[in-house]
């Protein structure tokens, strides 16, 4: 399978994928697909205990979930069942629920099909964990962003403090490590760079530096 107009951007929680994926999508004039948002929205719809549903029940519940993508660049809009997905998915609790439903092969197969359908219709920057390895193995360029958990946690703390929100570095570091562990060690489509991915260590770079490194790698 070849996806000549797809750029994949994978990496762990809090590495800056969303900010960078939007900027790259703007620069290329293509849509941006936040697959983490698909896992988060699915987790919210299924609710707590999704990992205890029977296969048949899960299948039935998933059949009622439909995603659509409209717009371009950073203003690309992802909707589920006709509703625009908003900030209700952006908590660490929902991030962990998403990581847990992401261990379920049936959920992964379901979202992979929806992601590939979108990718077949629209040139994309696709952000997630398994975009380069599993969903778009034929992408024209693959990027994997990485940084130590302590660095990602400190960045998140800085963001929260900037928004005048409470932030506990120790707790956030633990949350990031727990999510990393679950995302890297699941049996199906674990978080890892594709063999042909450009790996960028963002530890010593600011957003501008990472953006330039990505653009150099893909153009
Ligand atoms: O990128 P994010 O923090 O919004 O993702 C939330 C969780 O969803 C992440 O911890 C694991 C899961 N996920 C996944 O398994 N595969 C993807 N392609 C994207 C997200």
TrEMBL record:
<dbReference type="Pfam" id="PF02224">
    <property type="entry name" value="Cytidylate_kin"/>
</dbReference>
<keyword id="KW-0547">Nucleotide-binding</keyword>
<keyword id="KW-0067">ATP-binding</keyword>
<dbReference type="GO" id="GO:0005737">
    <property type="term" value="C:cytoplasm"/>
</dbReference>
<dbReference type="GO" id="GO:0036430">
    <property type="term" value="F:CMP kinase activity"/>
</dbReference>
<feature type="binding site">
    <location>
        <begin position="11"/>
        <end position="19"/>
    </location>
    <ligand>
        <name>ATP</name>
    </ligand>
</feature>
<dbReference type="GO" id="GO:0036431">
    <property type="term" value="F:dCMP kinase activity"/>
</dbReference>
<dbReference type="GO" id="GO:0005524">
    <property type="term" value="F:ATP binding"/>
</dbReference>
<dbReference type="InterPro" id="IPR003136">
    <property type="entry name" value="Cytidylate_kin"/>
</dbReference>
<keyword id="KW-0963">Cytoplasm</keyword>
<dbReference type="InterPro" id="IPR027417">
    <property type="entry name" value="P-loop_NTPase"/>
</dbReference>
<keyword id="KW-0808">Transferase</keyword>
<dbReference type="InterPro" id="IPR011994">
    <property type="entry name" value="Cytidylate_kinase_dom"/>
</dbReference>
<keyword id="KW-0418">Kinase</keyword>
<protein>
    <recommendedName>
        <fullName>Cytidylate kinase</fullName>
        <ecNumber>2.7.4.25</ecNumber>
    </recommendedName>
</protein>
<dbReference type="GO" id="GO:0006220">
    <property type="term" value="P:pyrimidine nucleotide metabolic process"/>
</dbReference>
<comment type="similarity">
    <text>Belongs to the cytidylate kinase family. Type 1 subfamily.</text>
</comment>
<feature type="domain" description="Cytidylate kinase">
    <location>
        <begin position="7"/>
        <end position="218"/>
    </location>
</feature>
């Amino acid at each position: 399978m070849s996806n000549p107009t797809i750029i994949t951007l994978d990496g762990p929680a809090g590495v800056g994928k969303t900010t960078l994926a939007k900027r790259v999508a703007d620069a290329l004039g293509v849509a941006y697909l936040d697959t983490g948002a698909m896992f988060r929205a699915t987790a919210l719809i299924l609710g707590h205990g999704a990992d205890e549903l029977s296969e048949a029940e899960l299948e039935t519940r998933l059949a009622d979930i439909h995603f659509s993508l409209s717009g371009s660049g950073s203003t690309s809009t992802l909707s589920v069942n006709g509703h625009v997905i908003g900030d209700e998915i952006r908590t660490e609790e929902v991030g962990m629920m998403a990581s847990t439903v992401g261990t379920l092969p049936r959920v992964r197969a379901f979202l992979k099909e929806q992601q590939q359908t979108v990718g077949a219709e629209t040139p994309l920057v696709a952000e997630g964990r398994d975009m380069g390895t599993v969903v778009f193995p034929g992408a024209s360029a693959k990027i994997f962003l990485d940084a130590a958990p302590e660095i990602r946690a400190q960045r998140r703390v800085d963001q929260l403090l900037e928004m005048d929100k409470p932030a506990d570095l120790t707790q956030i570091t633990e949350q990031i490590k727990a999510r990393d562990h679950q995302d890297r060690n699941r049996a199906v489509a674990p978080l890892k760079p594709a063999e042909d991915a450009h790996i960028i260590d963002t530890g010593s770079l600011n957003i501008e530096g990472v953006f330039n490194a990505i653009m150099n790698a893909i153009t």
